[in-house]
């Protein structure tokens, strides 16, 4: 994918990672030093948005599931998950894709690039996924809760209130039920990927 000088690529071992800082040391360290190892060990796959000189953003994704033990409260589990399903599909867990890491370069923050990535993933996982996937999950840093709320993610449990990260989820069924046009729109709208702000 090539949009206004920004490409989306799947990380390869040979890829030369371009400068990146999302103002979060853990995420910076993961991206610079660890994402290749996670990929080699089949633990997560990393995708990179970059222009000719900088990394604009990256995200790493992996398989996941949502189960009763994650929610903790059986009543909440029934209400949020099981009761939505037909009687014969009320399982003890449901398949998901996890956003293991997501970071946007500080120079590009607040330009809806994070939202474009989330929209891309939502569309991708109702059209091109090779296996069943009903939810997107994330362990969201406290400083990013508002970002995920704005992108229609909900809290999975009350167990992690006041923790450094909170488990959140998005139900892909919400958009799978909409007009199929949603799923066939360009995955990243070029209007969502503006030119970098000047330093
Ligand atoms: C969180 C992050 C991915 C957001 O990316 P972004 O491209 O700047 O976000 P967007 O421009 O798409 O923002 C969408 C909305 O979320 C809000 N938002 C984004 N980051 C926010 C934050 N840290 N605090 C509060 N609101 C935030 C924006 O104000 C915007 O609201 P609006 O639609 O009313 O204008 C990015 O700031 C980042 O990399 N942060 C550091 C790492 C991090 O926390 N990653 C999440 C890992 S769980």
Name the descriptors.
199 residues; 7 helices; binds coenzyme A; single chain; alpha+beta; Aminopeptidase; 27% strand; 8-stranded mixed β-sheet; globular
Structure description:
The structure is a single chain. The chain is an alpha+beta fold. The protein has one domain (2-192): Gcn5-related N-acetyltransferase (GNAT) (Aminopeptidase, 3-Layer(aba) Sandwich), CATH 3.40.630. The protein has helices at residues 25-40, 68-71, 74-80, 113-127, 145-150, 173-176, 181-184; strands spanning 2-3, 6-10, 45-50, 55-67, 93-104, 135-141, 154-155, 165-171. Strand 3 and strand 4 (55-67) form a beta hairpin. The longest helix is centred in the first third of the chain and has 16 residues, at 25-40. The chain starts with a strand and ends in a 15-residue tail after the last helix. The chain binds coenzyme A. Coenzyme A binds next to strand 5, helix 4, strand 6 and helix 5. Residues 22-24, 27, 102-104, 109-115, 138, 140-141, 143-144, 146-147, 150 line the site of coenzyme A.
